[in-house]
């Protein structure tokens, strides 16, 4: 989500979810995971992102779910497809054809019985450069490093710091202007989950907190710009960018992954 300006207003209230609600989020997340399974099978040179969008929308609707992104603030598609130097919110198009050597980030949201699942993955197309491979490994690794810290009793800044450290220690940069978020009956809820920060700071994590953790990492600088379409966010310096996201539910032990099969 877009990083809003810090405000001195009173802290937004955070909704904790019980086991029944987490099951409902898990069911929505499973639909999202099924879409990613199909994306992984269909990502190949020659396919367009519009075709991927159609496949995704079919799967979402066939499970009785609704594409969360479609119509969100006027967004025109069911998934986001962001190539190479595009970071997030790329719009699928019949003209956008995958080519060997590309990396494409696919972000998927599904709402099932009023509960939202949100997950993104960056896929290699054909054979990709060693730098691109390292970027994908660092970004996925940063996500898992953050998930490892997502345990009741720790603090929000522990997650942020782990993500940042994992990416930066491998020579990559963390995008600042977009963040993870709480997820529940709507896609974007408090808290904002930054991908950079200080361990031991921020709100105390509690069981039942449900968040979408989504590091966006670049091979260059972290500044971004938005295309004339008003959606596509890309790196200001043209460097490659990757994006991995899972929705998770916090616990006293390892977080429950909501957006898996
Ligand atoms: N994972 C993205 C986010 O949290 C998905 C939003 S795409 C939009 O911002 F099209 F719905 F805006
Ligand atoms: Co998200």
- Alpha-beta classification: alpha+beta
Q: How much strand content do the residues show?
A: 15-25%
Q: Work out the helicity level.
A: 25-40%
Output the helix-strand order. HHEEEEEHHEEEEEEEEEE
Q: How many individual domains?
A: 1
Radius of gyration: 17 Å
- Our measurement of the CA-to-CA distance between the termini, rounded to an integer number of angstroms, reads 24 Å
**Ligand list:** 2-amino-4-trifluoromethylsulfanyl-butyric acid, cobalt (II) ion
SS elements, strand count: 15
- Would you identify the regions where 5 or more consecutive residues have pLDDT less than 50? none
Average pLDDT across residues? 97
CATH homologous superfamily identity: Creatinase/methionine aminopeptidase superfamily
Which strand order does the major sheet show? 8-7-9-14-15
Oligomerization category of the chains in this entry: single chain
Per the CATH scheme, the topology name is Creatine Amidinohydrolase
Query: Based on the structure given, which CATH architecture is correct?
Result: Alpha-Beta Complex
Number of helices: 4
Q: Which geometry do the CA atoms define?
A: globular
Main β sheet profile: 5 strands, antiparallel
Highest-level CATH class:
Alpha Beta
């Amino acid at each position: 989500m877009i990083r809003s300006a810090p405000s001195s207003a009173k802290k937004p209230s955070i909704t904790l979810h019980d086991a029944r609600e987490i099951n409902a989020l898990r069911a929505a997340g499973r639909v999202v995971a099924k879409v990613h399974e199909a994306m992984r099978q269909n990502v190949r040179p020659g396919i367009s992102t519009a075709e991927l969008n159609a496949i995704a929308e079919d799967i979402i609707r066939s499970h009785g779910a609704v594409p969360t992104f479609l119509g969100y603030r006027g967004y025109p598609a069911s998934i986001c497809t962001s190539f190479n130097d595009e970071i997030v919110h790329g719009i699928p198009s019949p003209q956008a054809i995958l080519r060997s050597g590309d990396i494409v980030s696919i972000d998927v949201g599904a709402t099932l019985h009023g509960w939202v699942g949100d997950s993104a993955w960056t896929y290699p197309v054909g054979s990709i450069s060693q730098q691109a491979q390292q970027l994908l490994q660092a970004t996925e690794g940063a996500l898992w490093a953050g998930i490892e810290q997502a345990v009741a009793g720790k603090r929000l800044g522990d997650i942020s710091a782990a993500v940042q450290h994992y990416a930066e220690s491998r020579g990559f940069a963390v995008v600042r202007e977009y963040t993870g978020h709480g997820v529940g009956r709507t896609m974007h809820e408090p808290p904002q989950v930054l991908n950079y920060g200080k361990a031991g700071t921020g709100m105390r994590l509690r069981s039942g907190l449900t968040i979408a953790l989504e590091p966006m990492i670049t091979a260059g600088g972290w500044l971004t710009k938005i295309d004339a379409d008003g959606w596509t966010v890309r790196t200001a310096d043209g460097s490659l960018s990757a994006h991995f996201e899972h929705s998770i539910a916090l616990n006293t032990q390892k977080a429950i992954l909501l957006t898996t099969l």
